[in-house]
Amino acid sequence: MIPENIQRFIQTFSRLPSIGPRQATRLAFRLIAWGPARIAALSQALTGLAQVKTCTRCFFVHTNTDSLCSLCKDTHRASDIYMLLEKETDLISIERTGKYAGTYFILGELTKSGVLEDIHIARLAVLKQSIENTPQKKAREIIIALNPSTYGDLHTALLIKELAPYTEKITRLGRGIPTGGEIEFADEDTLGHSLERRN
Amino acid sequence: MIPENIQRFIQTFSRLPSIGPRQATRLAFRLIAWGPARIAALSQALTGLAQVKTCTRCFFVHTNTDSLCSLCKDTHRASDIYMLLEKETDLISIERTGKYAGTYFILGELTKSGVLEDIHIARLAVLKQSIENTPQKKAREIIIALNPSTYGDLHTALLIKELAPYTEKITRLGRGIPTGGEIEFADEDTLGHSLERRN
After folding, report:
1. pTM value?
2. Which residue on chain A is closest to B70 by alpha carbon?
């Protein structure tokens, strides 16, 4: 009953994160109603992603002709301060604060296995090598910027152990009550952190 | 900071129904990580939709060489019983019951304006013409299958007025307690319908 082309679309698109078969089905019919011109525009935007490269130094995305992203090429950024992040969208959020002018390093998304996987170990090797290639052979600071969750804390501990020999100082993002939050409704852990880190 | 290609993807994809800028951003980075092969597969599935046509008789989708969908071409289906539906996914749900063997007619999604829009009026004209072209010049039955909501009821009333002259009988889907539902938690309107339509 449902044409082959639509079935293939639903199958392929429902494998995308947070798009299920229902949403993919609705999407298919909406796109057909929109017509070939808009479908072509979407397809073009999609294939444009195939040209995006990954920075060999920090693993953020870029479309530069060489192998480094625009952040790594920016000579105004401190090259001896590193911030470790799980994913590109975390980097974008930090960069939007305008309060960090060091180097970034994307580790890849951490799973709830509680251990570092091959991709993370391979990337950490790149980070260590890049630090060892500097004149001082040590970073001035490494900021571990993982989500403040049980698993984030576990992974942070692992990363501190891995990276302590490569840096003078190792830090993590401050924890406490978020702006706009209410003391009354803050959980105990958050309130505890806000007390410990009062200033 | 975010490459042009990614920005274009986010802009284009966040215009899709139920995909916001956040989901589009996450999607972009996930697709880049998946690599060009999977991006190409998605793009192919997408462009496949451009070949899907709309049935000139019932407005359902098809990829046949002529202008009619496979349901309208099926001579085992009663061609003098029509079911009016808002959208293709409603048709698929009804068809899955295996309990309807008449003709379908997709009216297009109704808005909360409470009036029929140009597209609906144009499609109703097609339906009326198709009924007038039959030997009897009248349908045996028209089933109005809109969602059982306030707006659905309003639109159903409008459609009954429009279509009454074209059919011997005009009906709507039965209303009552859904299978698996509980009397205790059913709303008053649903319970009222289940009493009125007891059998």
Report:
1. 0.81
2. A1
